[in-house]
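Let us practice reading a record.
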Amino acid sequence: MIIHERFTLSDIDWPEFLFHMQRYALAQRFARGLQVLDCACGEGYGTAYIAQEAVHVTGLDISIEAITQCRETFIGVDNIDFQIADMAHIPFPEASFDLVVCFEAIEHIDADKQDRALAEMRRVLKPEGILLISTPDRLVGEKRGYANPFHVAEMTITEFSEKLGRHFPHVALYSQELNMVSAMWSLDTNGQSEGIGEWIDQTILEADRSLRPMAGNNAFYYVFAICSSNPITLPHAHYFSSYRREPAQQLWNRIDAAEQRLQQEVVELQRQLVAADERAANADQTASRLREQFLIAEKNNTMLAREIVALERNRAELGEVRQQLDATCAELGEVRQQLDATCAELGEVRQQLDATCAELGEVRQQFDATCAELGEVRQQLDAARDRLQVTEAFYGSRVGRLARRYYAIYDTPLIGAVMRAMRAVVRTLRPGHAR
């Protein structure tokens, strides 16, 4: 698919006009009385120019917009028609045309498609047909710093020649460039030459103002090729000129504009030079300040070096302290483990202590109960002691002695029995009396 980069007559670039129209002017010479195909015809101005001499010209372009414009512009021209098609797929049968032209289009498609397009052009040509084709020289473009974003695959002269040679046995290459030309020809002609008696001289003005003949034209940008299956008579050279004022005036306008830009650039450079001088003076002052700051920085660097040495020493000490701390932490870990074991043992002891305390509580209750009982016993003992004291006093008295004698007699077998019997009698007589 061709990426559109189209020359237009609506806003003419005169140098480009000369390039494009020279190709079509040469094609017109070949087209007299022939059927012609114009591949990538664009706006169709070249197609119409060829049609002035050809029997019929078909303009072919992949752009719908371009073909629509062509059909509207050249609607009244009988020997022209325009078709929308890709030049790698030309919609015509074999041997349909005597001449095929393809100017500044082949570089807009990739290398594989270039071969297909050339094969298609060869297919639709008659056996004695001719192909006129042009393209820029990639090496010259690179040397000049050209970078056209619309060109997909540019070729060197060698690559172009080899690619054409795969499809056509006879290939003649020409270079094309815009030059300052002084032309003269016989007054008997009508502005055209048949190309059999031209004398062409090329001269270069050197930097030292010396002149020397120019032997070749290999440094020209555009390459033009005439391709055929059979040998044909070829021109040695072709010159195309326009004697209207516009091309030269546009060139001079460009030169004037360039001169004005150069003058503006000189003024700007002078201004920048003054500004640079000011910046240089400021830079000297800045450099002086920087030197002072550098000296201060050197002193600071010396101090920093000492501090760094001290820091390194402190770092080493800290490393030792850290090792000690790690060892202490390891010991503390062991102590913690022991402490945890001790706490576990204390927990068991606490459980045992709680059980013992519970037992002691029961023992205390029993002790308190025993103490209470002992208190009662003490009271009984105190009462018994009191009675004992009374008894002892009684026993020590005369009555006590008589009582003991009485009980002694009472306990004798014979008298005691009598006395117990008498006592029983008395008890019966006095009911409720306790001994």
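A brief commentary: The beta strands are 35-39, 56-61, 80-84, 97-103, 125-136, 170-176, 203-205, 211-213, 222-228.
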